[in-house]
Specification:
Elements lengths: L2 H30 L6 H7 L4 H23 L1 H8 L31
Helix pairs in contact: 1-3, 1-4
Length: 112
Amino acid sequence: MSSRKAFEIGLKLLGVWFLANAIVETSRTFVQWYPHRTLFERMEYYMGGWRYFVKDYAVAFSELALGAVLVLFARRIARRWVRSDAGCCAACEYELKGLPEHGRCPECGKVY
C-alpha cells in the first residue's frame, strides 16, 4: 500500500470519527433533557442555559462539517499533501521502474 493511499484511508477514518462524534454528542444533549418541560425550561436545566446549548451545537456542527469534508475530499487532500512514491507516476501511480529517468508515463502520457 502506498503512503498516499494509507494517508487517504486515515483521513476518511478521521472524518467518520468526527461524524460519529457529532451525532453522539447531539443525541446526548437531547437525552439529558426532560421531555415534559418546555423548550425554555430545558435550556435552563441543561447546564445553565442558552450559552451551553449554543456552544454544544456549534461544536457538533463544526465536527459534522469537518467530518463531511474529510470523507468527501480525502483523495484530493491526500494527492496535494503526500508526494507520490518514488518510481511512480504522480498522476496515475503507474510504476516507472526500468524506464528512462525523464520521459512520459506509458499509462497516462504525463511528463515525469
